[in-house]
């Protein structure tokens, strides 16, 4: 089993980006707000969640590659 060590701030960032993406998706699928407001806020939150996840995923996989020995790659 492969293990990657993450710090508490890294875990917080990952959770925050997933929450933003989830909230955006929920707003897009729900009908609580005015449709124009809902679409604007929903797409913005979804985009922020996705765009901020990309560097975090790269960082986590970068840690994995940096800690893996030549025989594990």
List keywords for this structure.
single chain, 73 residues, mainly alpha, 0% strand, elongated
Q: What does this protein structure show overall?
A:
The chain is mostly helical and 73 residues long. It has helices at residues 8-29, 35-67. It has one domain. It is built from 2 helices and no strands. Helix 1 (8-29) runs antiparallel to helix 2.
Distance between the termini: 13 Å
Report mean pLDDT, rounded to a whole number. Answer: 79
What sequence of helices (H) and strands (E) makes up the elements? HH
Give the beta-strand count: 0
Compute the gyration radius: what is it? 17 Å
Could you give a short description of this structure?
With 73 residues, this protein is mainly α. The protein has 2 helices and no strands. The protein has one domain (9-66).
Blueprint of the fold:
Layout: H1 8-29, H2 35-67
């Amino acid at each position: 089993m492969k293990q990657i060590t993450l710090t508490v701030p890294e875990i917080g960032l990952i959770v925050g980006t997933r929450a933003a993406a989830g909230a955006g998706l929920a707003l897009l699928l729900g009908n609580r707000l005015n449709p124009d407001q809902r679409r604007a806020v929903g797409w913005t939150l979804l985009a922020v969640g996705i765009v901020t996840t990309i560097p975090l995923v790269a960082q986590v996989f970068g840690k994995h590659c940096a800690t893996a020995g030549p025989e594990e790659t």
